[in-house]
Amino acid sequence: MPVVSFAQELTASTKVSSNDNLPQSSIRGETVSIKITDIYEKGMEICKQDIMNFSSQMNLKLGVLRLFEWAKYFNMHTQRNTHAQVWIWLLELPREYWMERTLREIASVVGTTLLIDNATSKHLFGHYARILVDMDFIHKLFHEIVV
User: Fold this and answer.
1) What confidence tens digit (pLDDT) does each residue in 48-94 have?
2) Would you say which domain of life the source belongs to (predicted)?
3) Where would I find the H helices in the chain?
4) For residues 94 and 137, is the Cβ–Cβ distance under 8 A?
5) 125 is in which domain, residue-wise?
6) CA distances (Å), 119 to each of 101, 115, 116, 124, 147, in order?
7) How many domains does the chain have?
């Protein structure tokens, strides 16, 4: 089998199409704009199918994969993520509170509980409980929780 360079492979797989009948761009102030045809709707259907195929094959490690509905005028430069995964430490927590359900209840004040660390769940280290939560920083942050 002959060795093919990246450039050769790229050229061989590139389909050359006619540029006839493409819409004309226009200048609007400091930006250039183009009005696209409705063919992008076919692209949306392909994307939806790709997402369905991807989600059925996902094997993700622990964490949060945030999906949201696609918006027609989505701009990745203006999108703001307010969530983060944060390890919280519950200090001076009496041992009777170290049941998984109780720890999850306490951590729910801060965010969505994702994981309780191994040392906490097995009571190996008793100075603090450590819990991974998904926090939304839109909400007010508190440094103390009264239980």
Assistant:
1) 887 777 666 655 555 666 777 777 787 878 877 888 899 999 988 88
2) Eukaryota
3) 6-13, 40-56, 100-107, 118-121
4) no
5) 83-136
6) 16, 12, 8, 5, 22
7) 1
